[in-house]
Amino acid sequence: MPVAPLIPPPLSLYVHLPWCVRKCPYCDFNSHEARTALPFDAYVEALLADLEFDLPLVWGRTVHSVFFGGGTPSLFPAEAIDRFLQGASSRLRFAPDVEITLETNPGTAEHGRFEGYRAAGVNRLSFGIQSFDDGCLQRLGRIHDSREAEAAVKQAQDAGFDDINLDLMFALPQQTPAMAETDVERAIALAPAHVSHYQLTLEPNTVFAVRTPEGLPDEDTAWTMQEACQARLAAAGYAQYEISAYARPGRQCAHNLNYWRFGDYLGIGAGAHGKLTLGSEQSILRRWKHKHPARYLATAGTAGAIGGDERIAPEQRPFEFMLNALRLREGFTLALFRARTGLDDEAIAAPLERAIARGWLAREDGERIRPTELGLRFANDAIALFL
Ligand SMILES: C[S@@+](CC[C@H](N)C(=O)[O-])C[C@H]1O[C@@H](n2cnc3c(N)ncnc32)[C@H](O)[C@@H]1O
Ligand code: SF4
């Protein structure tokens, strides 16, 4: 494969908190029902030990975003988040404008918790709303209703959070296009900075995959829903910048943008994945940690916590890069492709021409490649060309 120098990209930190009140029947994230009191202190110690172990991989680099994902990070008390952030920022350099997001389940919004998160340094909240229809919420096995969801978002706003994302899902069992649009309207009424709008997928190894729920909209209906919701969001000032992500001007999620631009991330916590460019050896490392919380707790800070390590070989990089970049409306520049993959343009010349011929990608001023509307709709097919 023809080579170009690999240039270490911006660095993010992903922190996985693996517990939930109850497991949702559609969810294949690494999340475990909290059946007993959770070991918050021990888990924070484990996270810091894990971080310490991985530090030599990112020595001297600056962290531009932190994302507490789950699971349900909002099960953790603010003191635990504070202790982790203090420990992390004393070991790693945080950028002055670092974005720190915490995923929140509206069913866990205890009084005073949002103030505590804010004081700890969290400056962005991402709420798992899913729907504002109580029937839909029930069928999704959610632990909250729509009233609680709206109240939780308002509490967070009262605590001073203005950078808020609402996660919605569509193509839900027994959902009509009109219901999907109402969900989007109710989200907009809360004036969030960002909305994520995901089509429900039946993931293997979930309850929904085994017992398919009744009344699932078909693909054409799902597409109608997405188009109608996208138009409503656009009319309210939320521009789609990625297949499932919409933001007000300047409010894109820096953390996710770094993933989609094939940036680097350190992954700590049970089951967390990381991807790091090692400039000195001109390689890209993927590393993931053991998934099960008990095993992770027992081994964090040692090589025993590593579930696996692998290098992304040069021939895998075009596909890995496109898997992310072709989800973005902005697409990518050839300079970004070279810097992130360490490959020359030649490595993608043939599939690129095929994707352009099919009308999935367009080339602008010779340098920028952007997915077309058709390319965004058939992103998986466009990406597969680079396999
Ligand atoms: C880790 S969860 C976020 C926060 C929190 N755990 C919650 O559910 O409230 C991330 C988001 O992924 C989306 N999601 C999860 N499973 C999905 C599926 N099977 N299909 C589509 N979206 C899904 C949901 O919108 C969810 O809020
Ligand atoms: S609360 Fe979120 S992470 Fe937990 S099971 Fe439900 S969707 Fe998955």
Overview of the structural elements:
Belongs to the anaerobic coproporphyrinogen-III oxidase family. HemW subfamily. Its main location: cytoplasm. The chain is α/β, with parallel strands linked by helices and 387 residues long. The protein folds into 2 domains: 11-258, TIM Barrel (Alpha-Beta Barrel), CATH 3.20.20.70; 315-384, Winged helix-like DNA-binding domain superfamily/Winged helix DNA-binding domain (Arc Repressor Mutant, subunit A, Orthogonal Bundle). The protein has 15 helices and 17 strands. The chain has helices at residues 40-54, 78-91, 113-120, 134-139, 146-158, 177-189, 207-210, 219-235, 254-260, 293-299, 317-325, 334-341, 349-357, 373-377, 379-384, and strands spanning 11-17, 19-20, 32-33, 62-70, 93-104, 124-130, 164-170, 194-199, 239-242, 245-247, 264-269, 273-278, 283-289, 306-311, 332-333, 361-364, 368-371. The strands form 4 sheets. The protein has a 9-stranded mixed β-sheet, with helices on both faces. Helix 2 (78-91) runs parallel beside helix 3 (113-120) and helix 6 packs parallel to helix 8 (219-235). It binds S-adenosylmethionine and iron/sulfur cluster. Iron/sulfur cluster (SF4) binds at residues 20, 23-24, 27, 29, 31, 70-72, 105, 128.
